[in-house]
Amino acid sequence: MPDKIIRATGETAELRFVLVDATDAANSVANFHGAKAFARILLGETIASSLILASGLKTNGTIQVKFQFSGDFAYVTADATPMGLVRGMLPAEDVRSLGDFEPLLSPQTMKVKKLNDKGIPISESIVEMPSEHIGPATAFYLLQSEQTKSAVGIKAKANADGSTLEFCGAFLVEAFPNADAKTLAIMEQVVRDMPPLEHYHRPGSGLDLEAVLSDLAGPFKYTIHREIPVQPFCPCSEAGVLKAMTGLPREELEEIVYKNEITELHCDYCRKRYIATPAQVRSLLEKLNGPQTGGEP
What we know:
The chain is of the alpha+beta class. The chain has two domains: 4-232, Hsp33 domain (3-Layer(bab) Sandwich), CATH 3.55.30; 238-289, Alpha-Beta Complex (CBS domain Like). It has nine helices and 13 strands. Strands 7-6-3-4-5-11 form a six-stranded mixed beta sheet, covered by helices on one side. A five-stranded antiparallel beta sheet has the order 8-9-2-1-10, sandwiched between helices. The protein has a two-stranded antiparallel sheet with strand order 12-13. β1 and β2 form a beta hairpin.
């Protein structure tokens, strides 16, 4: 079953429901990074979190989510759009050093940045993570930064050797501001009584989102408004990578030109390989500082 997002609202209850199955997308992104076992699960759940939060954007744009840790892992991050495009990243050195082992982690912060459709930041929030688990941290963010009463479930599970995720998904039920106390009490009990997401796993098919929604809505009738495919996507380009090189010290750029070196670069997200020639680096220097002399083109 292809990855997708289901968005629904209560017909009479002031509730919003979002269901995510990102199994294939999370596996695809994890493969870019060679992530296994715990690292693959952590990346998958971060991808699911970003898709849940992106569903709340009022206009086209992007959500960037970053979970910071101390211990064996520094951070994990993912970007998502309301239309189901997503990418994620783990530090390559942490993935290599961790291998198949479960790391020692101490949760630090969760940072959420919202960007408009032109990639310009419009807001940023940082909250302390209540635990190392992605689901509770996401719910805590919604309560603290968005002042939203909600329940969040996020779960990914790897197979026995950690080489692939059997499923990766999430649900969100959110109360609109006009939701009454009775509705909130009923929903709280329904969420408490929900079986774990693993219950909805269909071998080889990710999660049965329709069954999740049916149970999550409890006694309330609902209307499904949209079903959106989830797709891994990275907007990196040669121009973007060259632009990123302008953040290097001028001395490093000048040395590349002087030594007539070919520079190999990789996108941190999709690991695509790019090449920067001395001529391209010289052009960067000229744009930054005016025409430069010395070195071979």
